[in-house]
């Protein structure tokens, strides 16, 4: 595999125990690109996801917590940056959310299917089998991802995934605690590997997730309120 990007800026997260799944990239979308793991024991909140700072003054913590469905909070790991997103549109089970830097994320049932404005966007994805596996408590699923290459062409990756329940976990977000079930999704194709994590509440909604976008854009931690 080509030269692996260093992750020194994340070392302090590991030391503090605020670890999420790690991400490494191996250059452009070429064969054997890998989103590597720091280990399953480092996943989680309390065990450790990145703790969100208070939202910007224009949107208070109280607003985010007390107005469910109006805001999401996103941590872009490659930029070491939190932001609050608001919904810009919806269509069926898909919704698009935009942050203060005009970066947009489109979800299908809480799973990322497209981004715009990152270093190398996820142009589109088919994740219907992933959603079904999570609803069923785990199982096998296939994904189809489309990326924009350095030549401004679409590169398609077909991935085989396995979703496994990791059991009950209580997470804390902006001073509020939530009981969830944590699911881990491991995906691989000939050219790409990554691990996503989802925290699902009692109503079956993904309220926190750690999702891979592309080797260049890395991972997003997403909290839905």
Question: Given this structure, which CATH class of the largest domain is correct?
Answer: Mainly Beta
Overall outline: globular
Q: What amount of the residues lies in strands?
A: over 45%
Q: Please give the radius of gyration in angstroms.
A: 16 Å
CATH architecture of the largest domain: Beta Barrel
Average the pLDDT over all residues and give the rounded result: 79
CATH topology of the largest domain: YmcC-like fold
Q: How many beta strands in the DSSP annotation?
A: 13
Number of helices: 3
The named CATH superfamily of the largest domain: YmcC-like
Straight-line N-to-C gap = 39 Å
Helix/strand class: mainly beta
What share of the residues lie within helices?
under 10%
Please write the string of helix (H) and strand (E) elements.
HEHEEEEEEHEEEEEE
Largest sheet: 13 strands, mixed
Low-confidence parts lasting 5 or more residues at pLDDT below 50?
1-32, 36-48
What's the structural domain tally?
2
Quick tags:
disordered N terminus, mainly beta, 13-stranded mixed sheet, 225 residues, 3 helices, YmcC-like fold
Describe the structure.
The chain is mainly β and 225 residues long. It has 2 domains: 2-34; 61-224, YmcC-like (YmcC-like fold). 8% of the residues lie in helices and 48% in strands. It has 3 helices and 13 strands. Strands 1, 2, 3, 4, 5, 6, 7, 8, 9, 10, 11, 12 and 13 form a 13-stranded mixed sheet that branches. Strand 8 (138-148) and strand 9 form a beta hairpin. It is globular and about 45 Å long. 36% of the residues are buried. The model is unreliable at 1-32 and 36-48 (pLDDT under 50).
